[in-house]
Amino acid sequence: MVDLPSVRRLEAVGFRAWPAASVQYDGSWLIRLTAGHASKRLNSVNPLDPSDYRDIPIRLGKAGKRFADYGRPLTVRQTPLTPPQLIAYMDNEEWAAFGHSLVLTADLAEREFGDGIDHLPIKDVGRFVDARILIGKEEPQTKPALTEIINAIKPECGLFLFEDLEIGPTAVSLVVQDNDLAGIMQFAVAEGVRRKGVGSALLDASLRWARLKGAKKAWLQVEAENEAAVELYRKAGFTEVYRYLYRTPGA
């Protein structure tokens, strides 16, 4: 049984942790759009009330026009807060489903960190973004948009960067501290150093900093098919709270 109050709170902190350029509401449907970045989380309709299912075709049509203005395909992010009637409508219209993801949390209050080395976050957003793009093998053209998104985050952030003298950046993590919750974002480990303890060390450093800042619980979102990452997080004590996926018109 999914705890809807927990889902609502995690959804709210997730939106603050990864802010879209344009935010509009249609009833309780939150429409997020960002022209400069193709992230699904930044370009999706997010229904936030299971009881808000009036005029589904009309509202989706209006949302579709907004997405078209941004050059984006209409995309609905389906969570436990999505009205069953909307899900049934998308099913009947044979909307595609993709991007199946897990939302995980871990308790930090009683966590034992061992004797690992403390790592301090860096202050240079540009350096962090360059490393994230390199490790994630993303297009360099995404740098301005990613930099703008990070600079727009209002809660306190910790930018963690691991580097090797010979191969350069090896891992990055963005920690967003929001009251007693800390979100682990943009977590990435270079392909050449995976399964060598780098990811565990980075996650440990990120969570140490979060608890030092007052976080009692950490949360993160990870695609279900990313088995290595899911395994890393589960070993670190993260457990599943709920799942979500994305829907677009057309099979």
Strand percentage lies at: 25-35%
Computed CA radius of gyration, to the nearest angstrom: 19 Å
Count of strand segments: 10
Q: Write down the secondary-structure element order.
A: HEEEHEHEHHEEEHEHE
User: What is the overall number of helices?
Assistant: 7
Uncertain segments: none
Organism: Sinorhizobium mexicanum
GO molecular function: acyltransferase activity, transferring groups other than amino-acyl groups
Keywords: Acyltransferase, Transferase
InterPro entries: Acyl_CoA_acyltransferase (IPR016181), GNAT_dom (IPR000182), Rv0428c-like_C (IPR056935), YpeA/RimI_acetyltransf (IPR050680)
List keywords for this structure.
2 domains, 30% strand, seven-stranded mixed sheet, 251 residues, three-stranded antiparallel sheet, 10 strands, Aminopeptidase, alpha+beta
Characterization of the model:
With 251 residues, the protein is α+β, with helices and mostly antiparallel strands. It folds into 2 domains: 4-102, no CATH class; 109-215, 3-Layer(aba) Sandwich (Aminopeptidase). The chain has 7 helices and 10 strands. The strands form 2 sheets. A 7-stranded mixed beta sheet has the order 4-10-5-9-8-7-6, with helices on both faces. A 3-stranded antiparallel beta sheet has the order 1-2-3, covered by helices on one side. The longest helix is centred in the last third of the chain and has 15 residues, at 198-212.
What's the layout of helices and strands?
Layout: H1 4-17, E1 22-26, E2 29-33, E3 44-47, H2 56-69, E4 76-78, H3 84-92, E5 96-107, H4 125-136, H5 143-152, E6 156-164, E7 168-178, E8 181-189, H6 198-212, E9 217-223, H7 227-235, E10 239-248
Keywords: Acyltransferase, Transferase
Pfam families: Rv0428c_C
Organism: Sinorhizobium mexicanum
